[in-house]
């Protein structure tokens, strides 16, 4: 492709750096949760599932987020080992799409992130049996009170809670264009160790 065609907001030799720049731009313009992303998974029957989660980091090896491993998304991520995400920034008229394999992260990084959360969020993580049936909100709050008495003011990270990293084989950068003639550039690699190939796509 003609590399000079990929200028402005699409410029750069590292897709992770471009993604971080786009997220930084969104942080200045989005009213709520610029790091909100739709996470798509499939269950054991192949039925798709999608929900909004919060992206916590874009590293040079992937896109990080955290959840309860026993939740529907946690189980589906473990089962399939692959996932897709999309971040849509209406204020910028841009979106970022990612597909790749999933790696579980439950080491020091997960411990550090859990410790950085508010106390109520940490206690809530212990109390919630995410995605499981719940009798009532009263029952949930009773469980929170129970956990608070048990775990105190500095609860450790639960063994059933931690991170996932999506290591992409495909990253697409999309920006709105006049008359629906949008600009789309996709970075692809067949293997995770391979160099990226970049293509401009039709709108």
TrEMBL record:
It catalyses: pyridoxine 5'-phosphate + O2 = pyridoxal 5'-phosphate + H2O2; pyridoxamine 5'-phosphate + O2 + H2O = pyridoxal 5'-phosphate + H2O2 + NH4(+). Substrate binds at residues 56, 113, 117, 121, 180-182. It comes from the Bacteria. Signal peptide: none annotated. GO terms for molecular function: FMN binding; pyridoxamine phosphate oxidase activity. InterPro entries: Pyridox_Oxase, Pyridox_Oxase_CS, Pyridox_Oxase_N, Pyridoxamine_oxidase_dimer_C, Split_barrel_FMN-bd. The keyword Flavoprotein applies. Residues 161-203 form the Pyridoxine 5'-phosphate oxidase dimerisation C-terminal domain. It is an enzyme of class 1 (oxidoreductase). One of its GO terms (biological process) is pyridoxine biosynthetic process. Binds 1 FMN per subunit. Its cofactor is FMN. Pathway: Cofactor metabolism; pyridoxal 5'-phosphate salvage; pyridoxal 5'-phosphate from pyridoxamine 5'-phosphate: step 1/1; Cofactor metabolism; pyridoxal 5'-phosphate salvage; pyridoxal 5'-phosphate from pyridoxine 5'-phosphate: step 1/1. FMN binds at residues 51-56, 66-67, 73, 95, 130-131, 174, 184. Pfam families: PNP_phzG_C, PNPOx_N. Gene3D superfamilies: Electron Transport, Fmn-binding Protein, Chain A (2.30.110.10). Coiled coil: none annotated. Homodimer. PANTHER family: PYRIDOXINE-5'-PHOSPHATE OXIDASE, PYRIDOXINE-5-PHOSPHATE OXIDASE. Belongs to the pyridoxamine 5'-phosphate oxidase family. Catalyzes the oxidation of either pyridoxine 5'-phosphate (PNP) or pyridoxamine 5'-phosphate (PMP) into pyridoxal 5'-phosphate (PLP). This is Pyridoxine/pyridoxamine 5'-phosphate oxidase. It comes from Roseovarius pacificus. The lineage of its organism: Bacteria, Pseudomonadati, Pseudomonadota, Alphaproteobacteria, Rhodobacterales.
């Amino acid at each position: 492709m003609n590399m000079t065609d990929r200028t402005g907001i699409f410029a750069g030799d590292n897709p992770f750096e471009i993604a971080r720049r786009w997220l930084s731009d969104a942080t200045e313009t989005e009213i709520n949760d610029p790091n909100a992303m739709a996470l798509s998974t499939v269950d054991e029957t192949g039925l798709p599932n999608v929900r909004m989660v919060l992206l916590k980091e874009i590293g040079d090896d992937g896109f990080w987020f955290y959840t309860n491993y026993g939740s529907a998304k946690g189980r589906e991520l473990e089962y399939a080992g692959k996932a897709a995400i999309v971040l849509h920034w209406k204020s910028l008229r841009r979106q970022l799409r990612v597909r790749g394999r999933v790696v579980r992260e439950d080491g020091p990084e997960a411990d550090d992130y859990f410790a950085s959360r508010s106390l109520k969020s940490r206690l809530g993580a212990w109390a919630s049996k995410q995605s499981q049936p719940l009798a009532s909100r009263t029952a949930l709050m009773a469980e929170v009170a129970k956990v608070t008495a048990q775990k105190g003011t500095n609860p450790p990270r639960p063994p059933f809670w931690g991170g996932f990293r999506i290591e992409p084989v495909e990253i697409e950068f999309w920006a709105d264009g006049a008359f629906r003639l949008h600009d789309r550039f996709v970075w692809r690699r067949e293997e995770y160790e391979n160099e990226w190939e970049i293509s401009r796509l039709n709108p």
